[in-house]
């Protein structure tokens, strides 16, 4: 059985891309992971401007979303990154085998630094090194992510390989990504050439998990498709909007995109597809939203769940850190 690890940003506005690309994989990973470890990355949130007074609230929001989606603290380890200090120590130690040139080339760094109007923090550049520390601290084999994180995963593999070559083979595990075959890059409904995103998307093109049912239906009804006449209900690189809607429908129903294409073969136009996908998403998110409301109210229960997760996570990460410090010659003789 594989050790599974993934991290997710603390925001109150998780969207359908996060859900299909990552969260549903987290839930499925609970049956395979030994253990499955999921981390809400509050330290990563400090790399761009943020409101300190709100950060814990956003962690609670995300914890409640993950529990409402089906994570079970008895079957996985769910914790807050800032509660396990080994992550920051390992991040520093890994900077010794992280190449500045590679960090500079990361798309996320380039996009996010270009979007900063004031300070471009060093943390934004080091973001993928902290992400590598998150995963490598648990010697994870498998990392469920969306397509946008593929580049960071490759960098993390380079860091682990370089570390092992320099300091001792088999100290760290070189992880593999797990990117879903369908839904790895859910697109913005208004600008389907771009990914659905918390920070870079359009408001009407981004479906939030906690959107009201009518808002969800409306966003899908207004989704941009294309001007093919007559409408062509199939996937293709030349049809990003339609492909996106078919992929979303297939993912939330748990069927293949081909079966959705067959089902829609007799449809009158894109309107039928938009209504079908809107209804399917409303239906899929309804139970999650209901559970979320109940879970979010009890902050002390959320804190208890995170604390229980952190103590399990710390026990694993501390063993890795002891090995890393030993092979690097850091601190007193163990
Ligand atoms: N559009 C997407 N389609 C599929 N998967 C996606 N993910 C993000 N967007 C899509 C995946 O969701 C996981 C958690 O992401 P995150 O909370 O760490 O935030 P992020 O990757 O930075 O994505 P956002 O929400 O879109 O934020 P910004 O706007 O900052 O880029 C990850 O596994 C990610 O791949």
| Major sheet size, sense and barrel closure | 3 strands, parallel
Q: Which structural class do the helices and strands define?
A: mainly alpha
Bound molecules: adenosine-5'-tetraphosphate
Classify the beta-strand content into a percent band.
Answer: 5-15%
Taken together, the total number of domains comes to: 2
Kindly identify the CATH topology of the largest domain.
Rossmann fold
**N-to-C series of helices and strands:** EHEHHEHHHHEHEHHHHH
Overall geometric form: globular
The N- and C-terminal alpha carbons lie at a distance of 30 Å
CATH architecture of the largest domain: 3-Layer(aba) Sandwich
Q: What's the CATH class of the largest domain, please?
A: Alpha Beta
**Mean of pLDDT:** 96
Helix fraction bin: 40-55%
CATH homologous group name of the largest domain: HUPs
What is the count of β-strands?
A: 5
Q: Give the helix tally.
A: 13
Radius of gyration: 21 Å
Strand order of the largest sheet: 1-2-3
Unreliable stretches? none
What does this structure look like?
With 334 residues, the chain is mainly α. The chain folds into two domains: 4-178 and 299-328, 3-Layer(aba) Sandwich (Rossmann fold); 213-293, Tyrosyl-Transfer RNA Synthetase, CATH 1.10.240. Helices cover 54% and strands 7% of the residues. It is built from 13 helices and five strands. It has helices at residues 16-29, 42-45, 52-69, 86-95, 100-105, 107-115, 122-136, 150-167, 213-221, 240-253, 257-263, 270-297, 299-328; strands at residues 2-8, 33-40, 77-80, 142-144, 176-178. The protein has a three-stranded parallel beta sheet with strand order 1-2-3, with helices on both faces. Helix 9 runs antiparallel to helix 12. The longest helix has 30 residues, at 299-328. It is globular and about 75 Å long. The two termini are 30 Å apart. Bound molecules: adenosine-5'-tetraphosphate (AQP). Adenosine-5'-tetraphosphate binds at residues 8-9, 17-18, 20-22, 145-146, 148-149, 184-186, 195-200.
